[in-house]
Design a protein that fits this description.
Blueprint lengths: L7 H10 L17 H15 L5 H19 L6 E4 L2 H9 L7 E5 L4 H8 L7 E5 L4 H4 L4 E7 L11 H11 L2 E5 L16 E5 L11 E5 L1 H4 L39 H15 L3 H19 L8 E5 L4 H8 L5 E3 L2 E5 L6 H10 L2
Parallel strand pairs: 2-3, 2-4, 4-5, 5-6
Antiparallel strand pairs: 1-7, 6-7, 8-10, 9-10
Helix pairs in contact: 2-9, 3-9, 4-5, 10-12
Length: 354
């Protein structure tokens, strides 16, 4: 594995771009905003307060975020739709599942990936849950869609992308991948999947209320844009009054009307991440996680998330008192390293748990 010291620009750039927060190991819950995000949103609030806010300018910033996200995940800009939450975007996909069709999900996956499909069961949609390691083998000719997270929220475990996509292709099933817990700390290629969703307030450090959907063009016509409003129009500002409806011909027809101030922050955050090499970010995050695993006597594992059994919450209390910000998930403490973390954070956790 590449050492962090071989890539000083990751640590150095992070120190410039983020305000230091010692002991913050909670990116899977809530990413920290870069300085530029705070500045942009503060300025936007003042503009709003003084009557100088401009919806058109908000839209331009959202388009900048769309373009940067497309570049980050390796798809054309016109295949990216903007939304508010992962569950809303997953819900659009779920309503397009045919009556009686099977959707294959992962047992224990984040419910924003599963609930939108489970609520379709009243019209005969069948949702089947299997362990992550069995996902590829569980795809059958009856499977219409495989819906899963690239990295599991509770543990950080990664799906076997090649195995799942090959199995889906072999059986004619579609794939929907939630990249929320992966995009931002590792290189992600959204073109490998028919559809992806991503909430950007975690590893991508955007404000909550920003999310992305990617859609392969050949799949887009299978989905009804059930949340269509004026922002889904071919010409947004010509679509504010009916009765005529002319939706965008590309993925923009799946856009949800935007929470403007959130996208001010999204644009600023996306520009920050455009200056970072995703592979170097991955190496930085993995190196720190590996260092802590070694200090704690844990087996090596190539992910930036470490989970420790904590059924009573005792470890979480110990870490909190030591100044570590982490999360309790599914009876475990979850610790995660991202760009702003350093060796000092490794020391802080290791000493607290010694």
């Amino acid at each position: 594995m590449t050492s962090v010291t071989d890539h000083p620009t990751v640590a150095a750039r992070a120190a410039e771009l983020w305000a230091p927060v010692p002991g913050y190991l909670n990116a899977p819950t809530l990413g920290l905003p870069p300085r530029a995000v705070v500045t942009a949103m503060q300025e936007a609030m003042i503009q709003w307060q003084t009557g100088r806010a401009c919806p058109v300018e908000y839209g331009e910033l959202a388009e900048r975020a769309r373009q940067r996200y497309a570049e980050l995940v390796g798809v054309p800009t016109d295949s990216v739709a903007l939304g508010s939450q992962a569950s809303v975007l997953a819900g659009t996909v779920a309503t397009a599942v045919p009556d009686g069709a099977e959707v294959l999900c992962v047992t224990g996956d984040f419910t924003s990936v599963t609930f939108p499909f489970q609520v379709q069961e009243r019209r005969g949609v069948m949702v089947r849950h299997v362990p992550l390691a069995e996902l590829a083998d569980a795809v059958t000719p009856q499977t219409h869609l495989v819906a899963f997270s690239l990295a599991q929220s509770s543990t950080g475990d990664l799906v076997d992308v090649a195995a799942v996509t090959e199995a889906a292709a072999a059986h004619g099933a579609l794939t929907l991948c939630d990249t929320t817990q992966a995009t931002g700390w590792m290189p992600v290629d959204a073109s490998l999947f028919d559809l992806t969703i991503c909430s950007a307030y975690k590893w991508l450090c955007q404000p909550r209320g920003t999310a992305y959907l990617t859609v392969r063009p050949e799949v887009a016509d299978l989905i009804t844009p059930n949340n269509a409003g004026w922002y889904a129009g071919a010409s947004v500002w010509d679509s504010v009054y009916g009765p005529e409806m002319h939706l965008a011909p590309d993925a923009r027809r799946f856009d949800v009307s935007l929470a403007w101030l959130c996208w001010v922050g999204a644009a600023a955050a996306s520009e920050v991440f455009a200056t970072l090499d995703p592979a170097r970010v991955r190496d930085h995050d993995l190196e720190l996680a590996a260092e802590l695993r070694a200090r704690l006597g844990l087996e090596p594992c190539d992910r930036p998330v470490i989970t420790l059994d904590d059924p009573t919450g005792h470890l979480a209390d110990v870490l909190e008192r030591a100044g570590v910000r982490c999360a309790s998930r599914a009876g475990r403490v979850r610790l995660a390293f991202h760009v702003w973390n350093t060796d000092a954070d490794v020391d802080l956790v290791a000493e607290a748990l010694a």
